[in-house]
Write a structure and sequence with these properties.
Layout (H helix, E strand, L loop, with lengths): L1 E8 L3 H12 L4 E5 L10 E2 L7 E2 L12 H4 L9 E2 L3 E6 L7 E4 L2 H12 L1 H21 L11 H6 L4 H12 L2 H8 L7 H12 L11 H9 L10 E2 L3 H14 L3 E4 L3 E7 L2 E7 L4 E9 L3 H9 L6 H8 L7 E8 L21 E4 L3 H12 L9 E4 L14 E8 L7 H22 L3 H4 E8 H8 L35 E3 L13 H19 L1
Parallel strand pairs: 1-2, 1-12, 2-9, 6-14, 12-18
Antiparallel strand pairs: 3-4, 5-8, 6-7, 10-11, 11-12, 13-16, 13-17, 14-15, 15-16
Length: about 525
């Protein structure tokens, strides 16, 4: 029987970050991963012939101040790629495109030219409105202790701020969008973009109460500055660098190592049992999986209180999306009336295919009924625009997420629905990039069922708990005052199910390493 200070279940980016930081403190740490590659849903592997395909996440979020240095990302070979053009979105035929530039002055000038002074003022007012709610959400702050929503509202310094918090936590995205961008015709592309931003990590429509929170969460600024970036070689390169860092510090990663259960002795986690029956002991067990996968599947309800079981079962985790991968024989080109965008290949890095908010709401309602949306909103990223190393010479990669897939339809119907939704998404791409189908030389289509099976994500939910206000901040904790402790002593969580939530920020892993290190300090001192 082997003994470690810490066992981490799952080699996702947060699990590896937790491991590297604890190993740096001199602890003996073992990371167990059931797949044959690291990174989980921030991994990269060959799915299409000769390509490095991102399995899930494709962009690195702005990092908290000092975090890249503490994780030693540059030392271990991580190369970040700037994105001068973050995205180019198309709403309805005939509407002007919405191009998001990294340069704020160029972005502001573009909005003013295309949509007018009122649109530019609307953005300024929305940013001003978001400032205080974003501060209390603390999406990009390390090691913050999440508070309950009701407490935050009660402690608002004045009536204006209280109204902002009430709207953020209880209102719909359209309450905000209608306030700041009321012109449904002139502002349609802006309204479409913001409405999609408000629902992409939820199981709501833009008119549904609670959807305002995700919009503010998405718009939250990072005080350390910066924008989202690509990682050369794909997101898996980031996880592979963390693995090298971790192993250089004495840590051990075992791939193809599936954990069947977490061992509990007198209410304390004492290790894990592997699928083959081997037991490995540790002073602390950390899970990079979500709460239901960790507590209901690996721990078992017999070790949990009825209150904990009810709370974990009540977490809404829904993967209402399909993921399409394409190997393309050439870079697609915009057709009329958008052909002027072809002058800069950067406009084709990230194509948003959204629609007006009312149609988006109808798509959500169709999904709930078990039906396919008529015009599924989708985003097509072509990462080879900025990183040609991902595909063989002369080829390009496309990776697309389409939303409001009816993932709660009967299981026997979901395969056919998945393939039909993929065709509808390709039709939408074809309308903007004529001839796109002819460029496809290889492809793959996955639904959230695949992510549930491959990554152990409950419901295929990459957020580990949708970005609904009642599931964020204090609603993401299981033990008061802790972002990572579970009701089982010496069992911690380090993944996106913890505050401050999803996105490749490393903050859940960083915070968990701090909590575990503090919890083990008395034993170290003795």
């Amino acid at each position: 029987m082997q003994n470690f200070d810490v066992i981490i279940v799952g080699a996702g980016h947060n699990g590896l970050a937790t491991g590297a930081l604890l190993a740096k403190r001199g602890m003996r740490v073992l990371v167990l991963e059931k797949n044959r590659y690291v990174g989980g849903m921030a991994g990269t592997r060959e799915i299409l012939s000769g390509c490095r395909n991102d399995v899930g996440a494709s962009l690195l979020f702005p990092l908290a101040r000092g975090l890249a240095e503490e994780l030693e990302l540059e030392r271990y070979g991580v190369e970040l790629l700037d994105l001068p053009i973050m995205s180019c979105s198309v709403a309805e035929p005939g509407d002007p495109p919405l191009v998001f530039y990294a340069n704020p002055l160029r972005m502001a000038l573009g909005i003013w030219r295309q949509f007018g002074t009122k649109a530019l003022l609307g953005f300024a007012r929305l940013v001003a409105f978001s400032r205080y709610p974003a501060r209390v959400i603390a999406r990009y702050e390390a090691c913050t202790k999440p508070r309950d929503i009701e407490e935050l509202i009660a402690e608002a310094p004045n009536a204006r701020v209280r109204e902002q918090l009430e709207l953020t936590f209880r209102g719909s995205a359209m309450d905000l969008i209608d306030r700041f961008f009321p012109d449904k015709e002139r502002h349609r592309p802006l309204r479409a973009q913001l409405a999609f931003a408000a629902v992409q990590s939820t199981y709501k429509g833009p008119h549904t109460p609670g959807s305002a929170f995700c919009l503010i969460y998405t718009l939250s600024p990072n005080d350390a500055g910066g924008l989202m970036k690509r990682v050369r070689g794909g997101m898996g390169s980031l996880s592979e660098a963390l693995q090298r860092s971790f192993e250089d510090k004495g840590g051990e990663v075992r791939l193809g190592a599936s954990v069947s259960r977490i061992l509990i002795d007198e209410g304390r986690a004492v290790g894990v049992e592997m699928r083959g029956g081997e037991e490995i002991r540790a002073r602390v067990v950390v899970s990079n999986l979500d709460k239901p996968a960790t507590l209901l599947r690996l721990v078992g309800e017999e070790h949990l209180s009825s209150e904990t079981i009810e709370r974990v079962r009540g977490i809404e985790q829904v993967g209402a999306y399909v993921h399409l991968l394409f190997k393309l024989s050439a870079l697609p080109r915009f057709g009329p009336p958008l052909e002027h965008l072809n002058a800069d290949p950067g406009t084709r890095f990230n194509l948003g295919l959204f629609t007006h908010p009312d149609e988006l709401q109808k798509s959500y309602e169709a999904c709930v009924r078990g039906e396919l949306p008529r015009n599924p909103p989708a985003a097509l990223q072509i990462p080879t625009v900025v990183d040609p190393t991902l595909a063989p010479e002369g080829f390009h990669l496309g990776t697309t997420y389409g939303f409001y897939f009816p993932c709660e339809a009967p299981k026997q119907a979901r395969g056919k629905l998945r393939d039909e939704m993929a065709e509808r998404i390709i039709d939408r791409i074809e309308a903007v990039y004529p001839g796109f189908r002819e460029l496809i030389v290889d492809s793959a289509v996955f639904s959230s069922d695949h992510f549930a099976a491959m990554q152990g994500a409950t419901g295929g939910d990459f957020t580990h708990g949708m970005i609904h206000p009642e599931q964020m901040l204090g609603g993401r904790t299981l033990v008061p005052g802790s972002s990572h402790q579970t009701p089982i002593e010496n069992l911690f969580l380090c993944g996106a199910s913890c505050h401050p939530g999803p996105g490749v920020t490393f903050l859940p892993g960083y915070g968990c390493a701090a909590e575990v290190g503090d919890a083990m300090q008395p034993a170290e001192a003795s």
